[in-house]
Amino acid sequence: MSRGHCEVRLTRRYDSTPAEVWGALTDPTSLGRWLARAVDVELVAGGAFVLALPGDGGLVQARVRELETQRVLELDWSHADEERSVVRFELAADGEGTVLVLDHRRIDEPIGMAYITRWSQALERLDRELGG
Amino acid sequence: MSAFAALADPTRRHIVELLAEGERSAGELAAHFDTSRPGVSRHLRVLREHGLVRAREDGARRLYSLDPAPLAELDEWLARYRGFWDNRLDALDTELARRRTRRTTAKENS
Q1: What integer pLDDT is reported at residue A84 of this predicted model?
Q2: Fewest 10 Å CB contacts: which of A7, B48, B84, B102?
Q3: Model-level ipTM above the cut of 0.90
Q4: What CATH architecture does domain B5-67 belong to?
């Protein structure tokens, strides 16, 4: 089942080992430099992962859903009054470096979302049909 | 139930697929299902309540069509987070370079 339109997926390669990338993903000081200020980070399944976004960005009240050292970090992402979502980082060694895959998806019924995608494609086809 | 959860029902998904092809009356939609006409009307009501489908009167008939608003909301969500993560993953690259430099310096000093 394709979920193409209902998740953000970004893939990056870094010239650092998985251990180094893992360090930057989980060390509160490092997190503060690239993601957001770490207010409360507890690296166990079910642990808190609270971040303060810069400016008036507010708090992200995340929670650790899955944790596999140097491999997987999955968070329940809850930002302000937005619907809950899931953020997943996956690391894989690639030569001297590391490939990181970031997935951010909404928790809404995935089946429904897949249909929304098809619906969206149908509307695009309709647009083209209409010369839009 | 969220708008997307409303689509977990297979009959409602099928209705949405039919409406993706264009406007339909409840009768035209019901012809595609074994479900009774009132059954189809109930599903249409749920879809309308969740803002997925809208209706307009056309003489004696009522015609149903898709409402693009939930799609627009989804697009907005995706665009916002794509931008957010794009920036953050660039910043992670900078942070990793910093960690590498620090390690190299620590080695040279030891």
Answers
A1: 80
A2: B102
A3: no
A4: Orthogonal Bundle (1.10)
